[in-house]
Predict the structure of Alpha-hydroxy-acid oxidizing protein.
Amino acid sequence: MTSDGIAEGARAAAKGAHAAAPGQALRVPEGIHCAQDYEALASRFLDAPVHAYVAGGSGRERTIEANSRAFDELGIQPRVLRDARAGHTRLTLLGRELAHPVLLAPVAFQALAHPQAERATAQGAAATDTCIVASTLSSCSLEAIATEAGPERWFQLYLQPRREDTLELVRRAEAAGYGALVVTLDAPAQAPSLRALRAGFRLPDSLQPANLATHPPAPPLPTAARGASRIFQGIMAQAPGWRDLPWLLGQTRLPVLAKGVLHPCDAKVLKRAGVAGLVVSNHGGRALDGAQASIDALPAIRQAVGDDYPLLLDGGIRAGDDVFKAIALGADAVMIGRLQVYALAAAGALGVAHLIKLLREELELCMALAGCPTLADIGETSIHRWPRPALVDHQEHHAS
């Protein structure tokens, strides 16, 4: 199938059709009625070890559970007789107008899910006027992704052990027309996914990060002295530090956002340092197991940085009402990670486009019924918290 044929099918999905380009039989899978259905059906389209890798998180996956539970504890307050005829989902972010507040988060190695990998994801994004954030660890080069993406595209950056390698990535992103850099700060060491290990997942030797193909081999980790820590004196010896951020900001004309922020003190320091915006994120539960749910951290960070500072959120978004809740608690926009991989695996570019269409319509329905015709109308009064069940005093219960 040609790239043009996939893009045409993706545009059809974005308009609500299950049709395809002439001569093609592109359809979204049966049983997809809402965005979260892509997650429910993902095991049909991904091999079991790959599914475990994508779905799993670090450690005992307490943070993944916290992300989901935190959204479930929030409800939406309906309003009546509100005029929503001029409603829309547009917003301005980093000086650019976006059609809606759902961005595609950086996800590594998408060739695990689909042969066309990030190219197909970018086509789905372009068909739905969606900003894609391309990963440093993508299966396709950032230049190849840029040729398929729409005008709104950002590049996610992992700071490399050698500054010259980081600078090379920055220059390539600038030349390829990326509008912002998103530097990920919360995963200097990768915590293992027990679910993936138990499923026997192993990254294929043939799957390498395309953006790093021309880089010389990374310098070896320092040899730890007898009794030294493999973590502290080994892995963390090459981890980025605060000194690296001013250097990066001085190397590029692009706005730089910091991803992986959960603490309001870090948010204040990053804002003072000149970072253009933050992504409130716990790495989708794939970094520190036990970290706070992103949505729970959001209000304090919004208070710390003020009303007019760009804030995005990722972690736990599974439906349009989750997007609504994130905006109500202070986010300007959200990023989705696993859902895009599930949709990519199910139907390539068409699936990604269809997923975004579903999320956007789910969001619009929430906005309409909550009396919020624009994103600016959504606020803390638009949501409520479900009462938590009262704790039972088991000793008293048994005595009575």
Notes: The longest strand covers residues 256-261. Residues 154 and 180 are 5 Å apart (CA to CA). The chain has one domain: 3-79+87-213+243-374.
